[in-house]
C-alpha cells in the first residue's frame, strides 16, 4: 500500500524555501508513529532539509542527479523506481515534497493529511484531492493550544 502523508494549509501550502512554515508537535508525533519501521519516499530537497536521516525508516530518495549518493539510503530517478524498491506487502509512505506528491498521486492508495486551518505564503503545494477519486474516512479536529498556534485536523482518505 502506498500512503501519502503530509501537512498542508487550507490553501494547500506545504512550505517555503524547503522548510515548514508552522510548528505542530502533535503532527510530528503522528508522522513518526505512522512512518517508523517503514519505507519513506521523498525528493532530494526534502531529504536534504533533514538534519540527518530519520531514524528507524528506510529512505528512498528521488533525484535527477545521476551521481547523487546518500549513505544508507536508496537513490532512484523516478517515482516508479522508488515504488518498486518498497516491499509490496507493507505500507510505504510518500513524504514529499510538492513535486513528488504530484508524481505520486496516481499511485497512492491512501492519504494521511494534516490540514492546518490557516493560509500561508508558500512555494510548495499539495495537489488537489479530487472528491471523485478519494473518500474521506476520518477527520479529527484539534484546537490550537499553547504548543500549537493553529487549529488543525488529521484527515484520512482512501481511493474510491
UniProtKB/TrEMBL annotation:
Keywords: NADP, One-carbon metabolism, Oxidoreductase. It catalyses: (6S)-5,6,7,8-tetrahydrofolate + NADP(+) = 7,8-dihydrofolate + NADPH + H(+). Pathway: Cofactor biosynthesis; tetrahydrofolate biosynthesis; 5,6,7,8-tetrahydrofolate from 7,8-dihydrofolate: step 1/1. One of its GO terms (cellular component) is cytosol. The keyword Oxidoreductase applies. Residues 1-159 form the DHFR domain. GO terms for biological process: dihydrofolate metabolic process; folic acid metabolic process; one-carbon metabolic process; tetrahydrofolate biosynthetic process. One of its GO terms (molecular function) is NADP+ binding. Key enzyme in folate metabolism. Catalyzes an essential reaction for de novo glycine and purine synthesis, and for DNA precursor synthesis. Belongs to the dihydrofolate reductase family. PANTHER family: DIHYDROFOLATE REDUCTASE. This is Dihydrofolate reductase. The lineage of its organism: Bacteria, Pseudomonadati, Bacteroidota, Flavobacteriia, Flavobacteriales.
Amino acid at each position: 500500500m502506498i500512503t501519502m502523508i503530509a501537512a498542508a494549509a487550507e490553501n494547500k501550502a506545504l512550505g517555503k524555501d524547503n522548510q515548514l512554515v508552522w510548528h505542530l508537535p502533535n503532527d510530528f508525533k503522528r508522522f513518526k508513529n505512522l512512518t517508523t519501521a517503514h519505507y519513506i519516499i521523498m525528493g532530494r530537497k526534502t531529504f536534504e532539509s533533514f538534519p540527518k536521516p530519520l531514524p528507524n525508516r528506510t529512505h528512498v530518495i528521488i533525484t535527477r542527479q545521476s551521481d547523487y549518493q546518500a549513505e544508507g539510503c536508496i537513490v532512484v530517478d523516478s517515482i516508479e523506481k522508488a515504488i518498486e524498491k518498497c516491499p509490496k506487502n507493507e505500507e510505504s509512505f510518500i513524504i514529499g515534497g510538492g513535486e513528488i506528491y504530484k508524481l505520486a498521486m496516481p499511485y497512492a492508495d491512501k492519504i494521511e493529511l494534516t490540514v492546518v486551518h490557516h493560509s500561508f505564503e508558500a512555494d510548495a503545494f499539495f495537489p488537489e484531492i479530487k472528491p471523485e477519486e478519494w473518500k474521506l474516512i476520518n477527520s479529527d479536529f484539534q484546537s490550537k493550544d499553547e504548543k500549537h498556534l493553529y487549529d488543525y485536523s488529521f484527515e484520512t482518505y482512501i481511493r474510491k
